[in-house]
Amino acid sequence: MSAEYATPVSKEGLEATGSAITSASAASRGSRPGGTAGRRAGIILLGLIVPALILLAWHLSTASGFFRPSQLPSPASVLAAAVDLIERGQLATHILISTQRVILGFLIGSLLGVLAGALLGLSRLADVLLTPTVGALRAVPSLAWVPLLVLWIGINEDSKVTLITIGAFFPVFTTLYLGLRHVDRNLVEAARAFGVNGVRLLTTVQLPAVVPALFSGLRLALAQSWLFLVAAELIASSMGLGFLLTDSQQTGRVDRIILAIILLAVIGKITDALLGIAERWAVRRWA
């Protein structure tokens, strides 16, 4: 374009344009939290539609007599069972004991899974030596460990936490091991070219590269921990949600069985949501 057709831009015009862009950007940033909060609230409400429909179908099926109370008690009966346990001071104890067992087993199993996954994922020799054995142990059903744990550890709290630890170990180990195996080798070689090796290479390059995979394993491990809880509380337990399930089965309290299942689902979802918050923070921070 020739010079006579170029539109002259003054210093004042540039400053005004820059000010407008800055104001628009600030306004956009200011509107994001509200927009994000609105979207999250909408997602939560959409997620509640199916549970509400299930609750409605449950109420209608019991009110119409389609299910007998001995088969499926009404929502009101389950709520009355919860109120009765609260008044007895038992429900909070069941929840707290089970949650404590899950958290302890999950933390120990996840830590061991990270250590083993890092070892086998980074060392070719350890991979060749240990991967077949770990893969075989992973195929052992959870209930198969119960008699051995009772024999070795006894029927105390340690055996229950150990069983949950076993359940939490393998998802974390597997996802971290596979994630480290698939880290971009060019990225690793570039880091080594700048003198980054050993533990520093693991913490600054390799682990940040597998943060999403690691948290996928952690969330699977948390779900496994709640699954293994019921098996763990079969080991001569006198409290806990797993005990509440088995005790209610023996006494024919179907309302308490349904209550225990609902509590396991709700608490499991809450703990998974908390881990999801940590995952989003970690991905923004390191990934």
From TrEMBL:
Iron in keyword set: no
UniProt domain ABC transmembrane type-1: residue ranges: 91-275
Cellular compartments per GO CC: plasma membrane
Keywords: Cell membrane, Membrane, Transmembrane, Transmembrane helix, Transport
Matching PROSITE patterns: ABC_TM1
Record GO biological process: alkanesulfonate transmembrane transport; cellular response to sulfur starvation
Pfam family, one: BPD_transp_1
Top-level taxon of the source organism: Bacteria
Subcellular location: Cell membrane
Annotated membrane topology: Multi-pass membrane protein
Membrane spanning stretches: 41-60, 102-123, 135-155, 161-180, 201-220, 226-245, 257-278
Family of this protein: Belongs to the binding-protein-dependent transport system permease family.
Protein name: ABC transporter permease
Species annotation: Arthrobacter cheniae
